[in-house]
Amino acid sequence: MLIEDLSPPVDPNWNPVIREPTYKPPPSEEQTQWLPREQPMAGGWVAPDERPPMRPPGPPAWDSPQSARPVWQPPPPPSRPVKGQSQGLALASMLTGLIGLVLGGCFGPLPGIAAVILGWMALSQIKRSPETVGGKPMAIIGLVTGGLSIAFYGLLLLWIIFAGAFGSF
User: If you average pLDDT over residues 126-137, what whole number do you get?
Assistant: First the structure.
């Protein structure tokens, strides 16, 4: 036999009259989700989708100028201060300080000096108006890396002077 029959064997004792399908139609007065429901008792549980919209307690905070009756409106979005006006100085200070450390042999102490000057200028602008000017961490990084670059070249200069004065390198 090339084709195998995969259907279960027929039960010889099965009788469809033994168990009739049970179906009980719903009574006509039963509430459905499509009909309006009765109001719940005071303090009783109410499904979330049946609750009225929430409003803040007390009188409304904003009135519509067109109507005499107060209408609740959502508050206006908070205004954020605009930062970043002089982040350019702080960013330039940080980048010049890092370039002074990494490529210092090519340019000498000049990037370090520029980083310190730009960092001080950025910090003074930030101190004058902190609500509109940002970039304080970048300015501090520029000051520190520029200072390290200047200190390195200062120590190098002292070493060359002492080595030349005492005759040995």
Answer: 86
Instruction: Give the domain range for residue 132.
Output: 87-166
Quote the pLDDT of residue 81.
56
15 vs 67 pLDDT, higher one:
15
Amino acid at 73: Q
Q: Looking at the domain assignment, is residue 70 inside a domain? A: no
For 99-104, the CB contacts below 8 A with 24+ separation are 100/145, 100/146, 100/149, 101/145, 101/148, 101/149, 104/149, 104/152, 104/153
Per the structure, how many domains does the chain have?
Answer: 1
In a domain, 46, yes or no: no
Cα distance between the two ends of the chain: 102
Residue 141 included in any domain? yes
Question: For residue 58, is it within any domain?
Answer: no
With a CB cutoff of 8 Å and minimum separation 6, the contacts of 115 are 93, 94, 96, 97, 100, 142, 143, 145, 146, 149
Q: What pLDDT, in 10s, does the model give residues 138-150?
A: 999 999 999 999 9
Closest by alpha carbon to 136, among 76, 83, 100, 66? 83
Q: Which percentage of the chain shows pLDDT scores above 70?
A: 59
Structure-block tokens of residue 31? 């509430």
